[in-house]
Design brief:
The chain has 7 helices and no strands. It has 130 residues and is mostly helical.
Length: 130
């Protein structure tokens, strides 16, 4: 059996990439790791969304983003919540201010926001999972 071993050069390269990502405000790597861990190991049934329902989905996502933004604003705003939650401010701002349904916040991101606001995670998560 082959065992993958990371070389010191690879570790240094990864550390450099992470520092660069942090500087750019794109260090959401933990969210990607969490999403991968939550992903099913085999494909599930493909979700079908009729074209004529896309606008409904977009309106719902935008409404939930607006609710989340109002909640964050009541707790000191994007910068304050970003600092409390450990979410990079540019990432949180981009997620809230994007005029489209993307990016939809990841579950891990929503939990971080809930913890930063002192709310039970389900108070925020349930809005996105109905």
């Amino acid at each position: 059996m082959n065992v993958f071993k990371t070389t010191p050069e690879q570790v240094l390269h990864l550390a450099t990439l992470m520092v660069d990502m942090k500087k750019a405000g794109t260090d959401d790597i933990q969210d990607a790791i969490d999403d991968d861990a939550d992903a099913p190991q085999v494909p599930l049934q493909k979700l079908y969304l009729p074209y004529d329902k896309l606008e409904d989905v977009a309106q719902r996502v935008m409404a939930e983003k607006a609710k989340l933004r109002r909640l964050i604003d009541r707790h000191g705003g994007v910068s304050a919540v970003a600092a409390k939650s450990g979410i990079p401010q540019p990432s949180l701002s981009r997620m809230l201010n994007s005029p489209s349904i993307s990016p939809i916040p990841r579950r891990a991101t929503l939990y971080k926001i809930a913890i930063a606001l002192g709310l039970p995670g389900m108070d925020i998560i349930m809005e996105w999972t109905r």
